[in-house]
Design goal:
The structure is a single chain. The protein is of the alpha+beta class and 359 residues long. The protein folds into 2 domains: 2-137 and 256-357, no CATH class; 150-239, no CATH class. The protein is 61% helix and 18% strand. It has helices at 2-39, 48-64, 66-83, 86-92, 97-135, 233-240, 248-253, 255-261, 265-276, 278-293, 302-328, 334-357, and strands at 145-148, 151-157, 161-171, 174-184, 187-198, 204-213, 218-227. The chain has a 7-stranded antiparallel β-sheet. α3 (66-83) runs parallel beside α10 and α9 (265-276) runs parallel beside α12 (334-357). The longest helix has 39 residues, at 97-135. The chain is elongated.
Length: 359
């Protein structure tokens, strides 16, 4: 009998969660589609590309919003469970509030692990596709910098053509082992090879440079060379913080390589801890939703629960942002800034669980 009840609780909970994800996914695609259409409005392209890009980008947003999605779906689930009198029926078979919450919280924890190891690698590939595809049409540097196993890649577009810059790694304000491929009217005309470049100012200060001119079929060596660009170390480092194109598994496996390519250990550790905290965050959000809903058997208006859900999500979201801001400004460590909201939610949930278990 216990297996049947457990299966019933989990299946119904997963169905509610799945529907909530679909709603968020649909809203995300529609809203992001307007942004993509605005981006491509001056280009003679069909609506197919903006739709594909939206479908590629939104799953990453869903992953980031997963704690709040699980909270809202848990609120709906517990409310329906209580108002349908199923909660009382389940308790007849010896299920306490704590046992029901524990079953669904553990399921949410496992769901978080599934998203980390199965869904996150897919979303990272989709984001990488999104960045690469959009870079072909972008006039903004925000979409033109990425890192992979071959080093740092930068694409710059101007009125005459474009340049692709590849460097072995970024080391503070220096790029090492650089190759610049220059295209004019889609024709490859020049390559610049440099041992390293100081990029904290524009133009970059390159050292030991070979300029290969394919049109004139010659090569010239410069001990010092100034390279005009729209990127500086500050801009590149700010974009370097985007680790959405790298999955949790890749972060763990390729930690050392990513650090050697230019990612600081602080940023890598922050992202790893953020990923690692996801299953625990989902576990706590189910407990939090249960505290608000099944702590009482009195019938209340739906508006009350909707209002609590919205206010709680907003409060936790902004508290997370505040904690991350404190970490990024050096007030607290970046790792601690990830775990502070979870620790405080844990304390609140531990008090709330004791209260609802007495009812």
């Amino acid at each position: 009998m216990n297996k049947i009840i457990n299966k019933y609780l989990i299946e119904k909970f997963f169905k509610t969660f799945f529907i909530t994800v679909l709603i968020f996914l649909s809203l995300g695609v529609v809203l992001n589609l307007f942004e993509e259409m605005e981006f491509f409005k001056n280009l003679n392209l069909s609506i197919t590309l903006p739709i594909i890009l939206s479908l590629a980008y939104v799953p990453t947003l869903i992953l980031e919003l997963l704690p709040f999605i699980i909270f809202l779906s848990s609120m709906v689930y517990f409310f329906n469970l209580r108002t349908s009198k199923d909660l009382l029926s389940i308790k007849v078979f010896g299920y306490s509030n704590i046992k029901i919450i524990l079953i669904l919280s553990i399921f949410s924890f496992l769901l978080g692990l599934f998203f980390l190891f199965a869904i996150n690698p897919i979303t990272s590939i989709l984001v990488k596709y999104y960045e690469t595809e959009k870079a072909q049409y972008a006039r903004d540097v925000d979409h033109l910098i990425m890192v992979n196993k071959n080093g740092v890649w930068i694409k710059e577009i101007d009125d005459f053509g474009y340049r692709i810059i590849n460097a072995d790694k970024l080391n503070n304000s220096n790029l090492e082992k650089i190759s610049v491929y220059i295209y004019k009217n889609n024709k490859y005309i020049k390559r610049i090879d440099s041992e390293f470049a100081v990029i904290n100012t524009n133009p970059w200060k390159m050292k030991n440079v070979y300029v290969h001119n394919l049109e004139e079929n010659n090569t010239i060596f410069f001990e010092n060379y100034e390279f005009e660009t729209s990127n500086t170390a500050e801009k590149i480092n700010s974009l370097y913080r985007n680790l959405n194109t790298i999955s949790f598994i890749d972060l763990i496996i390729n930690y050392k390589k990513l650090n050697e390519k230019g990612y600081s250990k602080k940023i890598l550790n922050e992202k790893i801890n953020k990923f690692s905290s996801l299953p625990i965050f989902l576990f706590l959000m189910v407990v939090l939703a249960a505290i608000f809903t099944i702590g009482s058997l009195k019938n209340k208006q739906n508006f009350y629960y909707v209002l609590i859900s919205i206010l709680t999500c907003v409060a936790i979201y902004y508290f997370k942002d505040l904690s991350m801001a404190l970490g990024q400004t050096g007030k607290i460590s970046l790792v601690l800034s990830v775990w502070v909201p979870i620790i405080l939610i844990s304390l609140f949930c531990s008090i709330g669980v004791i209260q609802i278990n007495e009812k």
